[in-house]
Amino acid sequence: MGVAIRTAGEDDRDTVVRLLDEAFQDDPVSGWVFPGEEYRRRTHHRLMGAFTDIVLADGWIDLTEDGAACALWLSVPGEEDTPEEPDEEPAEDAEDVPAQVREAVDPDNERVESIARLTEDIHPSGPAHAYLWMIGVAPERQGEGLGTALIASVLDRCDRDGLPAYLEASSERSKGLYERLGFACTGRVLHLPDGPRMWPMWREPRRS
C-alpha cells in the first residue's frame, strides 16, 4: 500500500514543528547548533518553527496523511531567471534572513546565524532546481520508508520536468539514503567549526 501524502497548510504548522523538533533532537548538526541536551530540548523547536514559517511562505511542505513524516521544499530559480543589473547595488533595507532567524530564535546563539550563512555559501548556483531543505520522520516511525516515499514523489515530478534537485545531508545515514535515490556529493564538504560535517548533494533528473 502506498503512502498517502498531502500538502501541508497553515493549520498544520504545529504538527510540522513538533515533528521536526522530535526528528532532529539527536541530529549531529542540531547538536552543534544547540549544544547540551537540556538547552536543545528547550530551544530547538524555535528554529524548526522559523524554518517551517519560511517554507510555508515561499515553498511547500509535503506531509504524510497520518502526520508521521514531512518534507520541506523550496523551488530555487536559475541564474538565467533572476538577471542582475550590472550597476545595481543591494538595497540598504534588504532582508538579512540569517540574522533575522537568529534574533527570533535565540539572539545569543551565533551558531543559529552561522549555519544559515554556511549553507548559503555552499548552495550551488546555476540551473533552477528543487531544494529539499529538511525532511523529518517521527522517531518511532523511522525505518518504514516514509522519508523515501516523500522524497520520491517530488523526484518523480523533477524527472518529468527535467529539473535537478539539491540537499545537504547532515549525517552519514541520511547521506546513504540520498545516494540510493540518485543524489551524489558535489565534491564540497561543509565542516562546521569544531563540529560535524554536512554533505551538499545534487541529483540530475533521470530520463525515461
Describe this structure in words.
With 208 residues, this protein is of the alpha+beta class. The protein has 7 helices and 8 strands; from the N terminus they run E-H-H-H-E-E-H-H-E-H-E-H-E-E-E. The chain has helices spanning 13-24, 28-33, 37-58, 97-105, 110-122, 146-161, 172-180; strands at 5-7, 60-64, 69-76, 129-137, 165-169, 184-185, 190-191, 197-203. Strands 1, 2, 3, 4, 5, 6, 7 and 8 form an 8-stranded mixed beta sheet that branches. A hairpin with a 5-residue loop joins strand 7 and strand 8. Helix 1 (13-24) crosses helix 3 and helix 4 runs antiparallel to helix 5 (110-122). It starts with a strand and ends in a 5-residue tail after the last strand. The model has no long low-confidence stretch (mean pLDDT 92).
Key attributes of the depicted protein:
alpha+beta; 42% helix; 208 residues; 8-stranded mixed β-sheet
Estimated radius of gyration: 17 Å
Structural class category: alpha+beta
Encode the helix/strand succession as letters: EHHHEEHHEHEHEEE
Would you tell me the overall average pLDDT? 92
Uncertain residue ranges: none
Give the overall form.
globular
End-to-end CA span: 24 Å
Oligomeric description of these chains: single chain
Strand content: 15-25%
Measured as a percent range, the helix fraction is 40-55%
Q: Tell me the major beta sheet.
A: 8 strands, mixed
In total, how many beta strands? Answer: 8
The DSSP helix count reads 7
